[in-house]
Prior knowledge:
This is Pyrimidine dimer DNA glycosylase. With 167 residues, this protein is mainly alpha-helical. The chain has seven helices and no strands. It has two domains: 88 residues, no CATH class; 72 residues, no CATH class. Helix 1 runs antiparallel to helix 3 and helix 5 packs antiparallel against helix 6.
Amino acid sequence: xxxxxxxxxxxxxxxxxxxxxxxxxxxxxxxxxxxxxxxxxxxxxxxxxxxxxxxxxxxxxxxxxxxxxxxxxxxxxxxxxxxxxxxxxxxxxxxxxxxxxxxxxxxxxxxxxxxxxxxxxxxxxxxxxxxxxxxxxxxxxxxxxxxxxxxxxxxxxxxxxxxxxxx
Length: 167
């Protein structure tokens, strides 16, 4: 059971559809009080963050649409459930490790729509124009913060960049 913390564009078809299915499972466990997998670390990480689960679902649905899938299963969580605008601060695996896991997993398989980055600088270069198109002041703010990060290759700094891009 896994909900990735990286852009769904990095996921291949199987991982994208698998995460979509597992996200619906986590939502069902949380909303309906189901017991199966209720103590799983990934489920526990999302308790209280229903808004973020709904946003992650929207990201997955948008990526699925880009790839020609017709997503017809909305996440039924009211907007007042969970901390609005807040994402879980804890990771099961830090974003850098998630890219490493995917690189190993996709070694002899087709990768996602976006090539897996080799370093933090590539992550920023893959996302900066999307950020700029939506919010120029935010683009400038994150750009300054990225410039101040000493090494985008360390796990902590890589995670800091991922957190900035999530917000």
